């Protein structure tokens, strides 16, 4: 393809946008609004996923041991836990460590709470098992269940199930919302291109009559659609970035419920390029779908 031909496509696309300025601005604004809504939801999903991963990395299963446990039984439990894939750390916590933890946790208030505990410590020895992700908790509990010498297992599987359900629900809702918003964007850009096509129907007929190929006619409209999509993507990303930055800075120490929020620069480094690519694809597809019937002369 010659450079002069490419230049013609872009000039023609820009002329068309200028000619239909009001409709083009309305289309860009609507696409921007649509992508902004999608961006807000994406940030919620990304932050929830990051939070779930963070919670997952902090999840611990405590396996409390009986006071009369034998060395052999302890060895069997240790070996069973070592064989579980996805365990990041296995720590033995004796009675003294557990008591010191309570003292540190409650500070001055712990004096009346733990009075007399130094003489007779009621806390059991325990294995504290840290996991890489929430799904591993079930494997740890199953590996420890039924082993001799275990008094009780602090089972956090109910919490894990809730976390996984919330994550999966968000993913499904996100996918549905994504498909709806993409369809809306395709419809809007397609309609904008149709308005241009109606006003240039005779011109297209003449071009076909003098031998212009379908793709020669298509390209200016495809580029016009791409420009509309990219413009909407850039505007929506800019608004999203500054709006999210305010939320990020105002959240207490950038932490919400003990979970770190994703840095706003993630929007510029990742979401911007995804939206721009999406805008190009949406614009191109919307234009191709709209122009098809106008090429039948």
Average pLDDT for all residues: 80
Into how many domains do the coordinates divide?
Answer: 2
Would you count the extended β strands for me? 6
> How much helix is in the residues?
over 70%
Instruction: Give the CA-CA distance, first to last residue.
Output: 25 Å
Backbone shape: elongated
Radius of gyration: 31 Å
The tally of helices reads: 10
Q: Which regions are unreliable across 5 or more consecutive residues at pLDDT < 50?
A: none
Strand order of the largest sheet: 2-3-1-4
Q: Please report which band the strand proportion falls in: under 5%, 5-15%, 15-25%, 25-35%, 35-45% or over 45%.
A: 5-15%
Q: How are helices and strands ordered from N to C? A: HHEHEHHEHEHHHEEH
Q: What structural class should be given to the helix and strand makeup?
A: alpha+beta
Describe the sheet with the most strands: 4 strands, antiparallel
Describe this structure in words.
The protein is α+β, with helices and mostly antiparallel strands and 297 residues long. It has ten helices and six strands; from the N terminus they run H-H-E-H-E-H-H-E-H-E-H-H-H-E-E-H. The protein has a four-stranded antiparallel beta sheet with strand order 2-3-1-4, sandwiched between helices. Helix 2 runs antiparallel to helix 7, helix 7 crosses helix 9 (214-250) and helix 7 crosses helix 10. It is elongated. The mean pLDDT is 80. Part of the ABC transporter FtsEX involved in asymmetric cellular division facilitating the initiation of sporulation.
